Amino acid sequence: MQTKKRLPEVEIEDEFHFPLRGYHLDIARGEVPNLDNFKKILRWLFLLKYNYFGIYFEDLFPWQKYPQIGKLRGRLSREELEEIISYGENLGIEVFPSLELCGHMENILSLPEFTRFSEWHRPQEGTINVFDEEAREFTYDLLREVVEFFPSEHIHIGGDETWALGRGKSLDKTNTFKGPELFELHHRNLINIVRDKGKTPIVWGDMLTGMYLRPDEREKWKVVLESEIWDDVIIANWDYTNLSEKHFREKINLFGKRKEKQIVCPGFSNWGRFYPSFDIAITNITNFLKPAKEEGVKGFLVTSWGDDGAEALYSFLDPLILANMEIAEGNGNWEEKWIALSGERHEVLEVRKLFGNDLFSMTIKHVFLGTPTFRYYSEILKDNVHRREKSTGDLWLDYYMGFIKNLKDTEALLKEYEKMLEKVYNVTLPEDLEMIRDMLRIGIKRLRGEVNFSDFVEFGNRYARLWLSERKKENLEVVIVKIYGAAGRADLRIF
């Protein structure tokens, strides 16, 4: 019975399309959240009914056997991790590790004592020499310690983008390309280590089919999927493009009889940018999750990445975390839900979305910093720009071609920026969005040839304050060096 002082007892039953509803956070490119922010993220996930949270470490797990790994890069302590795991568990969220034990190991392989394990003669490429037994055993040591530490059912062992595998030192030894065979051998052992502890391995799906390789190479890698070792794993099928539902349905069906073993992994398009591309992210999420529902996929693991310095603040991702869940399990009207849960005014939400349009989010970094990147690509690849479709299906080609087509015509870009500033000029914004508005203002000044040193000093101070409010201090310098480099170019009139 309900009265003024008493609410009736009720029981709420939730029903979901996806049993596994996860968020995968990259902390390895420098953007290590502080403990308070980890907890804030977990509370947001709890409110939105996520039940899995993957932390992408690369070199930032606190290995006791190798304490030099991750040092000075903001590596999490064991005590911090235990608190994060426990906090998630109390909210009904499984916190699990996401590792790289074949490719993307550059921060480990670049350390002098581990350089000898690199497949490539340049360890910054990041792939380990799987042909070398000592190198393999090294990765097995890394995995065993993580498996022992984490109470989670799931352990993500990585496996993506190992393009150099079989092409370096191992090729020198055999004179025969054995990339697929080495991949299968190595991951068989990794999977067995996880399974022997009664846990479930997760592996990225791209190398299992060679889906992001050239057609001639793709055929060679298809043999990997034929191995029985994938019967006991969850395949994380990632694709961050803004292509059609048909494209994603075909991608989901690439895995044949193992289709039911996969989870789909859309992305927030926040990498290589100061602000996420909402347009790309929302289209990607929508067109990936709809066929995933229809094809009976068991879950999703939406991803946030920090390539090229992790400039985009975590606070910019909260609406996308909500949008992903609303598209996955609700009616898709994420804007209405965001206003209800955040208390934000509609005009502020419109500014968020405006900053997230392709034209701005993909160009402002290059205009603001005044780098020669766009000049190089627009001159070398300009003949291809007019032939670009909505998406090529190639993640990085789309990224570069996406801003090239707009950076070619700086006069037109200036007009678009000026229109944007006029729309947002009088809106009262939270400090993070105010910073992006300031970036827009500085971008306009650069396009007009009016930018000066002090613009960047003031911006850098604000950016540093916002970074430190949500992240550890380590790696802030990576972004600050870029900002002050832009200040130097402005001071020297190098545009």
Automatic annotation (TrEMBL):
Q: Quote the Pfam families the UniProt record gives.
A: Glyco_hydro_20
Q: Which UniProt keywords apply?
A: Hydrolase
Annotated GO biological processes are:
carbohydrate metabolic process
Q: Does the keyword Hydrolase apply?
A: yes
- Keyword Transport in annotation: no
Sequence ranges assigned to domain Glycoside hydrolase family 20 catalytic in this UniProt record: 18-219
User: InterPro entries this protein is in?
Assistant: Beta_hexosaminidase_sua/sub, GH, Glyco_hydro_20_cat, HEXDC-like
Instruction: Give the Gene Ontology MF terms in alphabetical order.
Output: beta-N-acetylhexosaminidase activity
**Active site positions, chain numbering:** 161
Q: Member of which family?
A: Belongs to the glycosyl hydrolase 20 family.
Q: What is this protein called?
A: Beta-N-acetylhexosaminidase
Question: What species was this sequence derived from?
Answer: Caldanaerobacter subterraneus
Q: What is the lineage of its organism?
A: Bacteria, Bacillati, Bacillota, Clostridia, Thermoanaerobacterales
